[in-house]
Amino acid sequence: MKLIFLGPPGAGKGTLAAVVSEVYKIPHISTGEIFRAAIREKTPLGLKVQSIIDSGQLVSDETTIELVRERLEKDDAKNGFILDGFPRTIAQAEALAKIIGIDCAVNFDISDEEVVSRLSGRRVCKACGKNYHTDYMKPTKEGVCDKCGGELFTREDDKIESISKRLDVYRAQTAPLIAYYRERNLLKDIDARPASEVILENFKAVFPPEN
Ligand code: AMP
């Protein structure tokens, strides 16, 4: 299954993608997470994109497309994948179509108010990248990752000024992809408001797992 998860930041794409990746045994490819890992490791890519990401802007199409092209060439992506956060512009969608055809773009439907509440409460593990929330998904011990014991922090781009910038960028550059995929009969809407377990059940009803 070759899927795109489309929707504003904070819609729960990454959370659902992590579970779907396990259930359907296809890799979860998050361009945001690839960039954040590069920033953590201080690679040349990380140094190049850090200030862009912190300010809530998009990394250039050229850099992002090349990154995804290389990632999709790896063996584990041959039987399918979930692209989370890519494409984010029409140019990226057109480039992807030349690399590989997809089965479906899943559009996560959610209001701006809900996005702001989710992102401003999000906390992320510095060491392993696992996400938490101050209200909905608390760690057992405040400020500490349940999975690896790493320190939890607020992403620079989850601070309020960056959230509104990211929503503006989403509306201007990414939301047009909804019509793009709808016109190609590749779009499925999913209600992103319920708890993640409910969204997973709804997802399975639309895309039944093979076993
Ligand atoms: P995310 O974790 O998907 O919210 O991505 C975090 C940040 O990484 C975004 O705000 C962008 O700065 C950058 N980014 C992730 N994916 C893309 C993409 N497809 N195109 C351009 N920039 C991206």
From TrEMBL:
Record region (NMP): 30-59
Keyword terms, alphabetized: ATP-binding, Cytoplasm, Kinase, Metal-binding, Nucleotide biosynthesis, Nucleotide-binding, Transferase, Zinc
Highest taxon listed in the record's lineage: Bacteria
Top EC group: transferase
Domain Adenylate kinase active site lid, residue spans: 122-157
Location of the region described as LID in the Swiss-Prot/TrEMBL record: 121-158
EC number: 2.7.4.3
Record bears the keyword Amino-acid biosynthesis: no
GO cellular component: cytoplasm
Positions that bind Zn(2+): 125, 128, 145, 148
Binding, ATP: 10-15, 122, 194
Pathway(s) served: Purine metabolism; AMP biosynthesis via salvage pathway; AMP from ADP: step 1/1
Domains (record comment): Consists of three domains, a large central CORE domain and two small peripheral domains, NMPbind and LID, which undergo movements during catalysis. The LID domain closes over the site of phosphoryl transfer upon ATP binding. Assembling and dissambling the active center during each catalytic cycle provides an effective means to prevent ATP hydrolysis. Some bacteria have evolved a zinc-coordinating structure that stabilizes the LID domain.
Assembly, per entry: Monomer.
Family listed: Belongs to the adenylate kinase family.
PANTHER family, sorted: NUCLEOTIDE KINASE (PTHR23359)
Name the UniProt record assigns to this protein: Adenylate kinase
Source taxonomy: Bacteria, Pseudomonadati, Spirochaetota, Spirochaetia, Spirochaetales
Annotated gene: adk
